[in-house]
Write a structure and sequence with these properties.
2 helices; D-tyrosyl-trna(Tyr) Deacylase, Chain: A; 19% helix; alpha/beta; 6-stranded mixed beta sheet; 8 strands
């Protein structure tokens, strides 16, 4: 699994002109699921999202997690994180999981995070979405459950 994580003051996602997910301060996460991903990858990503210390403490150091700050997560599925742009001019998506498998792991990741008491809002899987956010910092990180980066 791959994730792009942004620390935000607020974020929302719209589908067909309707807000389907919205958070105050927390994390906006774009999550891509690969063909080889499993529940172990979902557990790794969920744990990182909950415990990654990227929020400022009283000394303005990145020392607090979304759990520590009672923050929220807006989790958006994004298969394009597995787009391969190394050859040609059109990305290839051979490494991305097929929709049925990706949906199951996406929903499993959401459940793992919610089990830890974190509010999770979502977009609509495989829909065309408009995402609006107020990036705080800006602070943006990438994760890969295979530890490629």
């Amino acid at each position: 699994m791959r994730a792009v994580i942004q620390r935000v003051k607020s974020a929302r996602v719209e589908v067909d002109g309707k807000i389907v997910g919205q958070i105050a301060a927390g994390l906006l996460v774009y999550l891509g699921i690969g063909k080889e991903d499993s529940e172990t990858d979902a557990q790794f990503i969920a744990d990182k999202l909950i415990n990654l210390r990227i929020f400022a403490d009283e000394n303005d150091k990145m020392n607090l997690s979304v759990a520590d700050t009672a923050g929220q997560i807006l989790l958006i599925s994004q298969f394009t994180l597995y787009g391969d742009c190394r050859k040609g001019r059109r990305p290839g998506f051979d490494a991305a999981a097929l929709p049925n498998a990706a949906t199951k792991l996406y929903e499993h990741t959401i459940e793992l995070i919610r089990q830890q008491g974190i509010t999770v809002e979502t977009g609509t899987f495989a829909a065309h979405m408009l995402v609006t956010s107020q990036n705080d910092g800006p602070v943006t990180f990438t994760l890969d459950s295979s530890r490629l980066f």
